Amino acid sequence: MKIKLLATALCALMLSAPSWSEQDEADNNVNNGGVSSLRGNVELDTQQDPGRIKQVQRDRPTMDREYVHQPPLIPHQIRHYKVDMDANKCLSCHSWKNASETGGTRISPTHYETRDGMTLSDVSPRRYFCLQCHVPQADAKPLVENDFKPVESLR
Amino acid sequence: MKKIIAIIKSWWQTLRAPSSASLGFILCLGFFGGIIFWGGFNTGMEATNTEEFCSGCHEVIVEEIKETIHYSNRSGVRAICSDCHVPHNWSDKIVRKVQASKELVAWAMGNIDTPEKFYERRRHLADREWDRMKKNNSQECRNCHEFEFMDFSIQGNRSVKMHSTALASGDKTCIDCHKGIAHELPDMTGVSGWH
Fold this sequence. Notes:
Chain A: One of its GO terms (molecular function) is metal ion binding. Chain A: Component of the periplasmic nitrate reductase NapAB complex composed of NapA and NapB. Chain A: It comes from Motilimonas pumila. The structure holds two protein chains of two kinds. Chain A has two domains: about 1-30; about 55-155, Flavocytochrome C3, Chain A, domain 2 (Orthogonal Bundle). The termini of chain A are far apart. Chain A has helices at about 1-30, 90-95, 95-100. In chain A, about 25% of the residues lie in helices and about 0% in strands. Chain B is an all-alpha fold. Chain B is about 60% helix and about 0% strand. Chain B has ten helices and no strands. At the A-B interface, helix 2 and helix 3 of A face helix 9 of B.
């Protein structure tokens, strides 16, 4: 009788074992391990409410830099301003040729230099894609606390 | 041959002979006939102004507008191809439509039947359209965007700066600055105001 019971229990264990491990694996795939990220402390298969898309501020005065060599931020909207092989909308206001007429800020002379410091006659290809460094700002609160302060000379 | 000439002659006689129908009847006939023909002509022409008709051949370009403000925006007002590319004024519209028949020939000949050929010709095609808009003082923009009713106090700083000077004085017209607002741009080398 005892043996019969043991065998049944073992059988039941063996049958249910694979489903346990499947369950474990599924858990592991979505388990965030208690780590809270910008998505919040939620399992990976949970879709957090993304909230509304933040609006880029349409027009504002130029923003101060926070550290030396910070690429200046873009104080205006840039919807559908294309920068590609054929056209660079930023340069139609900010290039040296056009800046005086349009009143845009001139790009700095460093944008004409190669990485070896040689000055070229036009914008250096490595500086052509403006949005790699310069970005517009949305009206949004910081996602994480930040007590960064600029150095004395920039304050 | 003689028979045919005879038939034509008899037709001509019928056409030349005064009708026995009353003047009122003939006038009515002319009136309703006029409505049908003119209405039909206009309906036909309007049909060539629809987005579906344009995308029949210009499918790729019609796709390009979708991410721009003239297709998707907060208020849902939008422009279709013909709003910008076909003059609204009747006589100018007819002229443009007749010019377009030449473009039909180019289409049938397959002058631009691959993306590569299109890319190569793109600057030329854009130049033509820019020239057209420059010459008519960007009339198709102004059909909706009337300078008289622009409120500078709610425009962006950069817009005010340009609109209150260059546009107001007539030095520049819309298309001088607003190129590629509904399409991808071609190679802009040498275009005034670009790099």
